[in-house]
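This section describes the prediction task in plain terms. A model, or a person checking by hand, is given the sequence of a single protein chain and must write out its three-dimensional structure as a string of tokens. No templates, partner chains or ligands are provided. The sample shown here is typical of the held-out split.
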Amino acid sequence: MPLKSYIELLKLRIGGMIALTAVVAYLAMAEQVGVWHTIGLIVVMLLGASSSAVFNHYYDRDIDRRMTRTSQRPLARDLLVMPQRVLWLAAALLLSGLSLALWFFNPVVAVHLFLGAFFYGVVYTVWLKRRSWLNIVLGGLAGSFAVLAGAASVRPELCALPLLLALVLFFWTPSHFWSLAIYLKEEYAKVGVPMLPVLVGEQRAARYIFANTLLLVASSLLPWFFGELGALYAVGAVGAGGLFLFGNWRMIQEPTREMGWKNFTGSMRYLGILFLAIVLDSRLF
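The expected answer:
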């Protein structure tokens, strides 16, 4: 299997998002920002996220072959004669990430790194993805653990701000992924994956997404309400939340594949604005 295929197994776009989430939490908690600290955190988070991504490729290779979006993935195309070999790669990536976390940071970062990989690789991929619509709700905790890992890299004790931001990520994930599931509803239905839109239809799923986004926006205001972040963050959270809710409302009016995709990309825009507000507020004030 060529090197390009091995890189594809790592799902670096998802890993990059996980690493960015951890870095934002670090920037929000650090009194002084260190370049090597930031680089080390990125490397550790990429290793942990990539390990669960490789495992996901291995475990889902049967349904990946039947979905248009994933049919060209390396293991779905049988580019590796013995696909079980990639499990060694997944294990090596995770052990490397845990070892670096222990050496460069502290055991708390390593625990959160392990839990993030575990929830994506085992809770989501193995236990829930093919069994329950709660798959992405609980599996999405991987993003919350990234917040906690980033914060723990500088302050390993329990702190209010990272816990509140982890709650925000918990509510963000369903709105984000259920929107994509509306776009890919027929694909998931074809392989029997019980994503919410497959079970209840696009119209009801859009309503559930709107309700979840209300919880998301409310949770995003808690860091300001409890005095952990200031007015600049609050303005960003309200503005981003208002735009995202408007997109959700439009999807209720027109619950089509195209609107599902627009709301999916809108969720990324929402998170980007929120991350920027967190960094600017914590670093400037």
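For orientation: The chain has 14 helices and no strands.
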